[in-house]
Amino acid sequence: MSKKEKDPAFVKFKGIVKRFGKVTAVQTMDLDIPEGSLVTLLGPSGCGKTTLLRMLAGLESPTEGDIIIKGKRVNDTPIHKRNLGMIFQNYALFPHKTIFDNVAFGLKYRGFPKDEMRTKVIKALEMVRLPGVENRMPSQLSGGQQQRIALARAIVIEPDVLLMDEPLSALDENLREEMRREIDNLQQVLGVTTLFVTHDQREALSMSDKIIVMKDGKKQQEGTPIEVYNNSVNHFVADFLGHSNFLSAVVESNEDEMVKVRLEDKTSFLARSSEPFLAGDKVDIVVRAQKFLLGHRSDYNGEENMNLLFGRISDRSYMGGEVSYYVELPNGQVIHVINLVKRNPFKQGDEVHISVNPENCRLLRARPKA
Ligand code: ATP
């Protein structure tokens, strides 16, 4: 490989399985983390994200499979020989050491000369935009600042891989957004290969080069944020990546990737899909809450129209610039619609119609009945 070429499998999980007694935390995981990229493990609590990260860190051993960093199998390499930077939810700074000593910790361990150590620590503090705090104690810094120090401590050793396990979840909403941008920028500036763990889909979508969606220890989907969001491969991913509605339907026809389906109440929908659906196939139409358009029923001009449903607003809640509406259909199903706040928002009890462009409808094969 030439010097400039990036290694697409800088970190590699190969057939990784991890069992704790009878619990299988990770099931046959294959995963490549390209050099210089930020890859996120995303999934609900207990899906095995942390276990996977801890195996890369050397804090757990895989039951089966290999972990490879820069072409070398590291299963038996102890943690301190893996050259990793780590950041966790609780900043884990040493409370009785100064900021300088906290950041310098990994450098001291590696035996750097004093001058060089000082230069590196000062530079790392500048990179996390906290110059001049080296003589303070951790307790004299805010939570957000302490997390930046943790970041400085992780990057100062110029790690091969940066590991971050829910590093933002202890911060309040505004700080979280700020730190998210900070980590994103720093990761790009340094070009450090990063594995990031979160259960927060917004965090994953906004920062990642690649997202691995996990459930019950298994990879559900792997792709760029746009791929996993727009082309979710199953109900779980569609749901986990934000506010999807599912409408049961049966395929009527499929021509040139435009699939006509019919709902139980005989309403017709058109959806774009490249899957080879056949007439009679049972499907679910998947529509994101943001993609439905809402109108007053009285404004409906009576034209025959596809992709149109009627209902009544059963509930609503404001979310800053947007409103979440819950629209109850005649069959009792409640549809979630998120629209921008308008001057005359819809009220509870309003009769409405909702519509959606065929390009914004995805089709998934119906789930087998439990
Ligand atoms: P969270 O976001 O809650 O940390 P997670 O997705 O990171 O969840 P893990 O912490 O990796 O999930 O846990 C995966 C599964 O393995 C869970 O069922 C958990 O209870 C189990 N597990 C993790 N560590 C151990 C352990 N040391 N001993 C026994 N079971 C464990």
UniProtKB/TrEMBL annotation:
Keyword annotations of the record: ATP-binding, Nucleotide-binding, Transport
Pfam family, one: ABC_tran
InterPro entries found in the cross-reference section: AAA+_ATPase, ABC_SmlMolc_Importer, ABC_transporter-like_ATP-bd, ABC_transporter-like_CS, Mo/tungstate-bd_C_term_dom, NA-bd_OB-fold, P-loop_NTPase, Transp-assoc_OB_typ2
A molecular-function term among this protein's GO annotations: ATP hydrolysis activity
GO BP annotation list: quaternary ammonium group transport
Species of origin: Desulforapulum autotrophicum (strain ATCC 43914 / DSM 3382 / VKM B-1955 / HRM2) (Desulfobacterium autotrophicum)
Occurrences of domain ABC transporter (ranges): 11-241
GO cellular component: ATP-binding cassette (ABC) transporter complex
Protein name: ABC-type spermidine/putrescine transport system, ATPase component
